[in-house]
Amino acid sequence: MNSLRLSLFALLLMSSVAVAEDRVYLRSSADSRTPEVYVGQIDDYTGQTLKMTTLSGRSIEIPAAKVASVESEWPEAMRAAQALFAQEKFAEAEIAFQQAYRAEPRGWVKRMLIAETARCRRNLGRNDAAGEAFLALVASDPYTPYLDAMPLAWKTGEPDVNLHRAAIAWLEKTDSPYAQLMGASFLLSAAERTKAIAALERLKSAAPAELALLAEMQLWRTEPPARDADKTAARRKQIEQLPANVQSGPRLLLGDALARDDQHEQATIEYLRIPILDNIDRPLAAEALLRAGKQLELMGRPAAAKRLYREIITDYPAAGVIGREASSRLEQAGGASP
């Protein structure tokens, strides 16, 4: 009787394992109302191709550009880490993602966990450590789909000692366009600015398409302020060529260009796209909200500006300097209380 129960238990266990399925959702075409879905087991997923064994046992390859999202049986450790990230407990989330990484056997999920670790470090302001994690990611997959995990500077600010040292080392990695892009990005605000500009010019001409475009957008930071509506419109189109998850930084620069042209309402809209569309880079989102608030003040809408400042204080508790400026502007702004 005991052996019969053990056999039944084994069969049930095998059945539960078989039920565990991965789902791959493809991007909807213009004439399709529902996304196409493949079900089975993901064998590998890189920035080029997703390889899968379907429920019927057929092996298929799907171009990564056609993949909208994937679902899988995520381990409990990974779900716990994601919950910590959602609560903005980035230090705890980083540790949890690393624990999940050590226990995870699937290579494509391990790369996902490295990307999550890099995102945690970015949100903690540890861009040097985030960059090292990202380079480990591209060493495993040179065509990574997780470009949003790459730390880049999109506003002026001299890097701290650790980041400065790391950026110099990255710039010297002539065999890695990812490393050079990161290094040049942070060194645009340092003594090595001339070397950084030269590296970005090379990347703009020779790097893979998305990196070349990001390099060109970094060079926007070096140009003198100018009012040029045609150039601004052209740059908006360039931004839209990028994957949605890496558009936020360039959109901050686009908002700045519109603000310089006294297009305060359009600048505000561009800034507000960032926290609406990007919930990953929290410091950048807080910066965008602050700049949008300033534009609203210039338009004579202090009550609306106050709402944004209060949002920074309430929803971005780790915003640091940005949060303190939001508190100061909240007290100083005129108009009715939000």
Automatic annotation (TrEMBL):
<feature type="signal peptide">
    <location>
        <begin position="1"/>
        <end position="20"/>
    </location>
</feature>
<dbReference type="InterPro" id="IPR019734">
    <property type="entry name" value="TPR_rpt"/>
</dbReference>
<protein>
    <recommendedName>
        <fullName>Tetratricopeptide repeat protein</fullName>
    </recommendedName>
</protein>
<keyword id="KW-0732">Signal</keyword>
<dbReference type="Pfam" id="PF13174">
    <property type="entry name" value="TPR_6"/>
</dbReference>
<dbReference type="InterPro" id="IPR011990">
    <property type="entry name" value="TPR-like_helical_dom_sf"/>
</dbReference>
